[in-house]
Structures are given as structure tokens and as C-alpha cells.
């Protein structure tokens, strides 16, 4: 796996590089946001670890720029600890958000969890199949990991795709936020349901005609979420 590490604190950067390479991963690094964008445009990366307080260009803008062309998994590292900062980072398309100071082993564990969920997820009953919903308005290719919404390709992040596949595997089932954290993120959040809420909100923007009155992903007050579109029958 090829990782781009964008971190301007030398000590943190050196420790992360050592641990990442110990996992057998290749690591390119830079402390500069502008240079990070340039590096990303010239090489294929499997993961980006992104600090927010950077020279040249802030991490938020780096994330926004990457998301214009790529769904590569992004893990944000930051000393900003306000909940609003976390939500904003996830809205920009980050897949995970880790606060400083952190334990490097936790970062590695979170990366492994992220990698597990970006692998092709195909429900056992529907392997190698293209699923359609709502008379073809949603077309989900489980193998290619793509989604067509009313004929247009939706640019889902890896987390959004995994979230959708969890929903479509069991239409009508109510998933609690804790369940979704476990199945989608690979670990359980305690007291941080806003992360899942934000991923659901981002997914709705890409599949719903009206996010204020969603028809596919419904909020069950006090319980969680459920997906209600049944798969179209194959003729």
C-alpha cells in the first residue's frame, strides 16, 4: 500500500513514518499542503493521512481538492478538538478523524479498520451482481463499487459506499448508530454518534432528490436509520 503522509510536525511525522513502514507500507511525506496536492496528482495513493495545520495550504483545502477527483480514503489528524471541527472534516469527505495527542498504535488500528471497510463488500446472496432499486433510479454495482443515481455516476467515498452496502443488504432493518459505527467504521464510537450522522447526511445528498424529505434512507427517531427501497426484480 502506498500512503501519502501530510504532517508538518517533524517528531510526529518521523514516528508515524517508522510505524507505517513497519507495517510494510510505502510512505511519501511532505509538511506542505500545496506540495501534497501536487504529489497526489502525480502518483496513485491508497491512503492519505492529513494534518490540518499546514504550510502552503490548509488541510481542509487539501481534502476538498483531493475529493474533486478521487475517493481515496483520507484520515485527518488535528489538534482541533471541537465537535464542529470534526463534523466539518467529515463533510469535506474525510473517512476518519483523529485528535492529537494520539497513540500511534491507535492510528495504525484505525487505518487497518479503514482498509477492511474499503475492500469490496458484496453480500453473500448478491455476489458479482448489479443491484437496481426504485425502477432503476439507483443502480449499485457491488463489484465495481459504483453507484448510478438516475443515470448519473455518484462520486461516493469508500465510507459512503460501505454505508450504502450495509443498508441495501437488509432493506427495512433499523440500524442503530452504534451498529453502523461497528459495521461501517470497523469500531464502535462511544458518545460520538455525530460522525455516523454526518456520513448519512453526505450519502443522502448524493442519492436523494430532496434531502429534507428522503425516500431511501429514513431517520427513525431514537433508534437510528433504515433503507426502505426494495431491489428491483430481475426478469
TrEMBL record:
Sequence ranges assigned to domain Response regulatory in this UniProt record: 2-115
Residues annotated with 4-aspartylphosphate modification: 51
SMART domains attached to this UniProt entry: REC (SM00448), Trans_reg_C (SM00862)
Pfam family of the protein (one): Trans_reg_C
DNA-binding region (UniProt annotation): 128-229
Top-level division of the source organism's lineage: Bacteria
Key word Phosphoprotein present: yes
UniProt keyword list: DNA-binding, Phosphoprotein, Transcription, Transcription regulation, Two-component regulatory system
Residue ranges occupied by any OmpR/PhoB-type domain in the UniProt entry: 128-229
PANTHER family cross-referenced by the UniProt entry: DNA-BINDING DUAL MASTER TRANSCRIPTIONAL REGULATOR RPAA, REGULATOR OF RPOS
Name listed for the protein in its UniProt record: Transcriptional regulatory protein SrrA
UniProt organism field: Paenibacillus allorhizosphaerae
Gene name of this polypeptide: srrA_5
Amino acid at each position: 500500500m502506498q500512503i501519502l503522509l501530510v504532517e508538518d510536525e517533524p517528531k510526529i511525522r518521523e514516528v508515524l513514518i517508522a510505524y507505517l513502514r513497519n507495517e510494510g507500507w510505502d510512505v511519501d511525506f511532505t509538511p506542505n499542503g500545496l506540495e501534497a496536492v501536487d504529489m497526489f496528482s502525480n502518483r496513485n495513493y491508497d491512503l492519505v493521512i492529513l494534518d490540518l495545520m499546514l504550510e502552503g495550504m490548509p488541510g481542509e483545502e487539501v481534502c476538498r481538492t483531493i475529493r474533486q477527483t478521487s475517493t481515496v480514503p483520507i484520515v485527518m489528524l488535528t489538534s482541533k478538538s471541537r465537535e464542529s471541527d470534526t463534523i466539518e472534516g467529515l463533510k469535506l469527505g474525510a473517512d476518519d478523524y483523529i485528535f492529537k495527542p494520539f497513540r500511534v498504535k491507535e492510528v495504525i488500528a484505525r487505518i487497518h479498520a479503514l482498509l477492511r471497510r474499503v475492500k469490496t463488500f458484496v453480500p453473500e446472496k448478491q455476489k458479482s451482481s448489479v443491484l437496481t432499486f426504485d425502477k432503476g433510479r439507483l443502480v449499485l454495482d457491488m463489484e465495481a463499487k459504483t453507484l448510478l443515481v438516475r443515470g448519473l455516476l455518484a462520486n461516493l467515498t469508500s465510507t459512503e459506499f460501505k454505508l450504502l452496502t450495509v443498508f441495501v443488504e437488509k432493506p427495512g432493518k433499523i440500524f442503530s448508530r452504534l451498529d453502523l459505527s461497528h459495521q461501517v467504521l470497523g469500531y464502535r464510537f462511544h458518545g460520538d454518534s455525530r460522525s455516523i450522522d454526518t456520513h448519512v447526511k453526505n450519502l443522502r445528498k448524493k442519492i436523494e432528490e430532496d434531502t429534507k424529505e428522503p425516500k431511501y434512507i429514513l431517520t427513525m427517531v431514537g433508534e437510528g436509520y433504515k433503507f426502505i427501497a426494495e431491489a428491483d426484480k430481475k426478469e
